[in-house]
Every structure is written in C-alpha cells, then in structure tokens.
Design brief:
By secondary structure, this protein is α+β, with helices and mostly antiparallel strands. It has one domain: YaeB-like fold. Helices cover 43% and strands 27% of the residues. The protein has five helices and six strands. The strands form two sheets. A four-stranded antiparallel β-sheet has the order 3-4-5-6. It has a two-stranded antiparallel sheet with strand order 1-2. A hairpin with a 2-residue loop joins strand 4 and strand 5. Helix 3 packs across helix 4. It is globular and about 40 Å long.
C-alpha cells in the first residue's frame, strides 16, 4: 500500500477519465461488430481508440497476465483491464517493481 500513497490517485484517475472521456461513442460503435477479421466487441473498440489517443502512455499487454493494459504516469505504472462497464485497476507499481509483477503473473 505504500506505493499508493506516493502517487496522487486523484490525478491518475483524472488522467484515465480524460482519456476515456475523449472516446467518441459513435466511433466506438462504428468500429465494433463483425468484419472479415472476426468480431470486435465495443470494449475492444474503446481500447483501440484509447491506444490511438495516448500511444506514448498506454500499452496493450500481451501474454497471460491478469492486466490487459499498462498506463505510464511519471515513474509509476498502472496495470488495468477494461470490461464493457468498468475499468478494473489490477496494480499500481513503481517502474522498478514491474519486472517482478510480470514474473509473478507468469507463474
């Protein structure tokens, strides 16, 4: 819990909110649905838009970890997942601790 006291949670939440708020709902609906490449759900379409809006700070993770995305905020990393109705924060870690997070998640 010490890590959570070292960063401004309100500021981090505000940054995530601004990114989410910038998503054009119609664009999200236009991108979702069936295509020749398969089906894209609305939450996957929203995630794609978020990545495009903030390429330098948000990364979609690959592998078997519980978090699907990582947001860089100064020296901290916010690992989270997106469902159709909410953003689920998995972990908030200093960048030095992220290697351990990946190793723990892989095992």
């Amino acid at each position: 819990m010490k890590v959570l006291t070292e960063i401004d949670l309100d500021e981090t939440a505000e940054e995530v909110f601004l990114i989410l708020d910038s998503i054009d709902v119609q664009d999200c609906w236009d991108r979702s649905g069936g295509s020749r490449d398969g089906y894209t759900s609305p939450d996957e379409a929203a995630a794609e838009i978020m990545e495009e809006e903030s390429r330098s700070r948000i990364k979609r993770l690959r592998g078997s970890q519980s978090a699907t995305y990582r947001l860089r905020v100064a020296d901290y990393r916010v690992f989270y997942d997106i469902t159709e109705t909410e953003v689920v924060i998995i972990a908030v870690l200093h960048k030095r601790e992220t290697a351990g997070f990946y190793q723990e998640e892989a095992s």
